[in-house]
Amino acid sequence: MTKAVVVRQLGGPEVLSYEDWPLASPGAGQVALRQTAIGLNFVDTYQRVGLYPVQLPFVAGNEGAGVVIALGEGVTGFKVGDRVAYQGQVGAYAAERLAAAERLVPLPDGIEDQVAAAIMLKGLTAWYLLHETWAVQPGQTILWHAAAGGTGLIATQWAKALGATVIGTAGSDDKVALAKAHGCDHVINYNKDDFAARVREITDGKGVDVVYDGVGKATFEKSLDCLRPRGLLVSFGNASGVVSIPDVTLLSRKGSLYVTRPTGTHYVGKREALLEGAGKLFAAVQSGAIKVEIGRTFPLSQAADAHRALEGRETTGSVVLLP
Q1: Locate the Enoyl reductase (ER) domain: which residues (predicted)?
Q2: What's the CA gap between 161 and 165, in Å, rounded?
Q3: Rg for the chain (alpha carbons), in Å?
């Protein structure tokens, strides 16, 4: 048995139940992990409410770091005692868990466990969005919504290191200051200013090359107004609700625009891509190009409070749960 946060019915944070959970021996291709740190992400809330379906009951969470404590049949490349991290495997909110060995990444000595748990999902998301979905080039201008969030703080620093002009949005003066300290050339407080109008002012009416939007419904249409002709809107989250486009001709009227909805499954689903992205992420952190901001930590037993803080926009940077 281990301690875990279990979802037995869909709903609000109150459905997260901290309880004993059975832990089997690792099967073929699996390892058992003693977890040391667990990342909190919006996808965890989407699964909790049923937006992203997971068969009930399930242990919540998708990202963590820990130590290998047992190996299943056929596992190579790892040994007991290895430090590892992962993302994209449901079941993270637990003191111990089983995980697919092929989805684990070895941790270099210079990356602490809490840092790894804070960056695996968010950092790999930033990697494929900035390097694969739209390969950001020196001299380009991007807009990143929720720039003071966990993914935002990683991505804006990385984009700046790639030579882009980075415009961010945030919802308070404190978050504006945090985003400015983490790579943004300009930050717009969307609760005070019309962000589309400000983007046009900042870019002398030209618009940006690409908008990265993890907010969703509340920002989608105005984000289109921020783009230059034939620019790209990358919609990668639903923090304010799910986006829909009732009339696709809207894209032609606003400048023959492109829209994409990327997911990690299609960018880091293969082990080669996972290792490439993680390697570049760790290198960027170790070089100082990305400084990781862990805004808050919660005991694993208080995962419901962590969800309330995340959904209430009360967090900045990454949030980590500690078993």
Answers
A1: 11-321
A2: 10
A3: 20
Q: What is the pLDDT of residues 43-91, one digit of tens each?
A: 999 999 999 999 999 999 999 999 999 999 999 999 999 999 999 999 9
41 and 121 Cβ atoms separated by less than 8 Å: yes
Let me know how many helices (H) and strands (E) the chain has, helices first.
10, 16
Q: What does the longest C-alpha to C-alpha distance in the chain come to? A: 61
Give the pTM: 0.92
Q: Phi, psi at residue 3, to the nearest 5°?
A: -90, 135
pLDDT digits (tens, 9 = 90+) for 88-136: 999 999 999 999 999 999 999 999 999 999 999 999 999 999 999 999 9
Q: How far apart are CA 240 and CA 145, in angstroms?
A: 12
Tokens linked to 200: 């046009």
Enumerate domains of the chain plus CATH numbers: 2-119+271-322 (3.90.180.10), 138-261 (3.40.50.720)
Single-letter amino acid, residue 79: K
Q: Distance between CA 306 and CA 310 in Å, rounded?
A: 6
The CA distance from 289 to 300, in Å, is 30
